[in-house]
Amino acid sequence: MSVATTRNGAPAFSSDSERWAAVVGRDRHADGAFYYSVRTTGVYCRPSCAARQARRENVGFHATPADAERAGFRPCKRCRPGGDGVVEARAQAVARACRLIETAEEMPSLAALADAAGLSRFHFHRVFKTTTGLTPKAYAAAHRARRVRDELSRSQRVTDAIYGAGFNSSGRFYATASGVLGMTPTDFRAGGDGAVIRFAVGECSLGSILVAATERGVCSILLGDDPDVLARDLQDRFPKARVIGGDHDFERLVAKVVGFVEAPALGLDLPLDVRGTAFQQRVWQALREIPAGRTATYTRIAARIGAPKAVRAVARACASNAIAVAIPCHRVVRHDGTLSGYRWGVERKRRLLEREAAS
């Protein structure tokens, strides 16, 4: 039977005959598109459920688990359609795709990734971005960036690093080097030698605040008690970069950040130069999606990026964040709601959360 599809290639399953065909075929592509219930057992399932096939006359279809439960059916214990089973299945599917991206010499096509995940292209793209916070292409770019940084740090020659990171030609690498590294490969290997980083220090109710930026965007927002300590911290990150004081226009940027700290309702939308491993970038992107005035647990963030067992790694990524408030790691709390360590002090974290909640 030919199944209708959307413009994006996802099966539409717009008729009961198409839905029944998916159930008979235990089609994984249909998972999430609809659910089916069995009148004689009183349960509802995902289309791919491996349970014994029911008779057609006993089967009904539902758009969501809530619809099925309102109709009086309970979730199947085998495929767990309304709870952790779906979440776990999606996380495993995304994990398979991530491993494929990380081990492939060339970026796999969307169709190949979707096939590895057992999903349609449209559904896979949506699930991948929902789970990791990144599109498959952005995840591949972040992973490639980490490989490039690792290779540049240990290779004698830039050329060796290029091929070691998986690029098949130096031309392709240099075409993307600035976006991957924020500077030339030679400058990166030299600890930022030649890169220009502007910075300025301001004062706010939380103490001193340093804002630094490259040509690409803000690369550091640091909080502390001593401006000199903040400046040394920045210099330590890029020991050979040209770190220079910002001009009057740059100080306006600092004023904008200070304004957000004092009045979170103003919002903060800055171009960022975010540098980190693929995993760190997934975590930091998930942090940026936490609304002001809300919090999330480390466990929830780990599940959000498709790595439910990586709670400690999520905590380390939060601790590695060097862009305070713009990447709001202060909005992450323990599972019981209490405040844990914060790079710039738990008391600052508490005050930031109180202001956001009040606004």
In words, what does this structure look like?
The protein is an alpha/beta fold and 359 residues long. Helix content is 46%, strand content 12%. The chain has helices spanning 16-24, 65-70, 84-103, 110-117, 121-132, 136-154, 158-164, 170-181, 185-189, 227-237, 248-262, 278-288, 298-304, 311-320, 346-358; strands spanning 35-38, 43-45, 59-62, 74-75, 196-204, 207-213, 218-224, 242-245, 296-297, 332-333. Strands 3-1-2-4 form a 4-stranded mixed beta sheet. Strands 7-6-5-8 form a 4-stranded mixed beta sheet, sandwiched between helices. Strand 6 and strand 7 (218-224) form a beta hairpin. Helix 12 packs across helix 14. Residues 1-10 and 168-185 have low confidence and may be disordered.
Radius of gyration over all CA atoms, rounded: 24 Å
Oligomer: single chain
Number of helices: 15
H/E element string? Answer: HEEEHEHHHHHHHEEEHEHHEHHEH
Please summarize the sheet with the most strands. Answer: 4 strands, mixed
Q: What is the strand content?
A: 5-15%
Number of strands: 10
Overall 3D form: elongated
Ends: how far apart? 56 Å
Strand adjacency order, main sheet: 3-1-2-4
- SS-derived structural category: alpha/beta
